[in-house]
Task: structure prediction
Amino acid sequence: MARVDLDDNEHSERDRPMSAGTDERDRTDHAEPDKAPRRRSGLAMLLVVAVLVAFVAFQVVNHFAGWFSLNPFAEKTKDRSGPVLLQSIRDLSRYEAASGNFQVIVDLEKDARFLPNAVRGKRTLFVGNGSVDAYVDFSKLASGAVTVDRERTTATIKLPHAQLEPTNLDSSRSYVYATQRGLTNRLGDFFGGNPNNQQQLYVLASQKIQTAATESGLRERADRNTKLMLENLLKSLGFKTVNVTIGSGQ
Result:
């Protein structure tokens, strides 16, 4: 009987390690799936941190390296223009008597007839700065326009009216201030802009400035300045009386 009890005890003791080992394996099997999401989240966090560090490093290099001309990402501008060709030369016989500076705000709107502006339409505000010069062309003096008396003390000059030069629009001070575009216009500009749009703004601004210069009294100012210049010039040459009259100009 005692032998039987010992055998039973031995069998029970042998069975215990096996059950314990089985429990440990079960715990391990249950624990491993919990660690996998943590590892993936840790790798994702490291990746995000690495991207942020790389971005900050790029910004620092791009900001400070330019001071020492060592920035590998710096933008370079190369001028590949050809030589300037002289096309013509002409002599001028004119006196630039006055110049006016003008500014105009062009409000240009284009829309479709049966579509709302949000779908198809474009409105542009363009600031144009330019100048117009007024001059007297001495080459237009008619025969006998300048007469001098025998004593060479009196001179009479008949001048044509002053004329206006075409508007000189300053491209460095002219710019698009604001633009509103419809959906189809945005898509069109994305796939390929139309350079004629800018050209139209420059032409329209030049026309408006030219009209304003015509109505501003710039030509009359140039007539007076030319008359005063000739009177002072001839009097400095010894003429006592100088009569300058303004005739019909072009």
User: Anything to note?
Assistant: The two ends are 146 Å apart (CA to CA). Helices lie at 2-64, 183-191, 196-214, 218-236. Residues 2-64 form the longest helix (63 residues).
